[in-house]
Design a protein that fits this description.
With about 90 residues, this protein is an alpha+beta fold. The chain has one domain. The protein contains 3 helices and 2 strands. A two-stranded antiparallel sheet has the order 1-2. Strand 1 and strand 2 form a beta hairpin. Helix 1 crosses helix 2. The longest helix is centred in the middle third of the chain and has 21 residues.
């Protein structure tokens, strides 16, 4: 049994880009939900701030979630976004 046996690939859309990442099977739905929330926040930010690129919106979104991490749900979302950011960095390399 390898360390990847409990992982499953999922495809995510975030800020208009597709990402294929490996996640724990038990966390796939939670990560999809977190990505959906983040993408909705990015769309909201795009309507408010013009002239920015998607990287700016991703950073703004991550900072907003980190700043709002007062409750357990916010911490969970921030953790999910951190994990997603790490996976995105790996996918882009």
């Amino acid at each position: 049994m390898t360390q990847h046996d409990d992982l499953t690939p999922i495809n995510l859309w975030l800020a208009g880009r597709s990402y294929r990442i490996l996640v724990k099977k038990t966390e796939a739905d939670r990560i999809r939900h977190s990505v959906k929330l983040a993408d909705e926040k990015i769309m909201e930010l795009k309507q408010t701030y013009s002239g920015k690129d998607n990287q700016d919106f991703l950073a703004m979104c991550l900072l907003m979630y980190a700043a709002d991490s007062n409750g357990e749900d916010s911490i969970t979302i921030a953790d999910d976004l951190k994990k997603l950011n790490e996976e995105l960095d790996k996918a882009l390399d």
